Amino acid sequence: MDFTVIICTYNRANNLSTCLGELSRQLGVGDMKWEVLVVDNNSADKTRETVTRLAEELPITIRYTFESQQGLNYARNRGAQESHGDYFCYVDDDIRVAPQWLAALFQALKSNDADAAGGRIHLDDSIILPRWIKPEMYGFLGYQDFGESPFQMDGISKYPFGGNMAFHRRVIDKIGLFNPLLGRKGSGQKRAELFKGAETDYFHRLAAADGRIFYAPAAIVYHQVMPFQLRKRYFRTIHYNAGVQKAYHDPQTYRRRLFGIPLFLFAHTARNIARYLGQLFMRGPDWAFRQQMTVGHFLGMMRGYMKRAHENSR
Question: Which CATH number among 3.75.10.10, 3.60.130.10, 3.30.420.40, 3.90.550.10 corresponds to the domain 3-226?
């Protein structure tokens, strides 16, 4: 088996017909042996029945597996362990792949003897974005585009996003699986569920192991953003939680602390609050919202350091 496409899903059976339907229309894969593996992450809807039906209706190989441990990275790891391909990739269940997507990923991996590759993630054309979502905020919705030319990524400042990333199987031997303590839990609609950072951690580990990571611009997918992801609460939460996670897992030890929080963080937070208030007064709440997210990130870091200090004192 050359390639396994892994789809991790939780209570989104309604998305699977579109996602799998687009996968069934791939071009340039006639000589490739490939499969789709749907990982059901403890769904309570009709995910199993939907996958069974689509496996019978569509002209591609579709398998189903179940992961009872809640969390995206538990599901990703289950998919990697049960995949049959020499290469495997991940797409989200709210993704539509372009017809040449799989062939482009396969070519990028094989021709470069790559450990990993990733392509472009565009927002679906049907999405109407609120005016407060500026282009520099598209990345929080999964958008990624480094242009038309392929190149080798460093895995630190540039690396694939989770909605469109592929790996050679040898990567598991090099660095293991995804850290299940990071990443989203459940549907991602509650503060305790909405965490990112798993891909950052994984590609940083791969870069440290001298992994070869390549950008494949022809491997394009389209993200069908959910309505709850277009609310300010979603953006606030995702950036706050990123701060919590960053501080909680910070390997550094700081001597000058208050309640476990490094003292320099108080000054950083105060400066960013002042900057936010200035933008709010001069330009209004929509313009100032991105700076409000930055303030939330610093507050999240404070929470993360306090949480770590509390747990270490037990």
Answer: 3.90.550.10
∠ CA(154), CA(157), CA(160), 5° rounding?
70
The DSSP H or E segment spanning 217 is strand 213-223
pLDDT tens profile 46-74: 999 999 999 999 999 999 999 999 888 99
The whole-angstrom separation of Cα 246 and Cα 292 is 18
Q: How far apart are the first and last CA of the chain?
A: 50
b/e per residue 231-252 (b: at least 16 CB within 10 A): eeebbbbbbbbbbbbbbbeeee
CA 231 to chain centre: 19
Nearest to 145 by CA among 224, 204, 212, 221: 221
Q: What is the DSSP letter of 314?
A: -
Q: Is residue 195 scored above 60 in pLDDT? A: no
Q: What is the pLDDT of residue 188?
A: 46
Q: CB-based contacts of 118: which residues, under 8 Å, 6+ apart? A: 144, 153, 159, 160, 161, 164, 165, 166, 213, 215, 216, 219
Residue 219, amino acid: A
**How much is the pLDDT for 227?**
86
Q: Where are the domains of the chain?
A: 3-226, 232-312
CA distance 52 to 62: 8
Q: Give the global pTM.
A: 0.86
Classify residue 31 as exposed, middle or buried by CB count within 10 Å of its CB (0-12, 13-18, 19+): exposed
Taking the C-alpha atoms of residue 34 and residue 91, their distance in angstroms, rounded to an integer, is 15
Of 130, 163, 131, 137, the C-alpha closest to 230 is 130
Q: Token pair for residue 251?
A: 């390997």
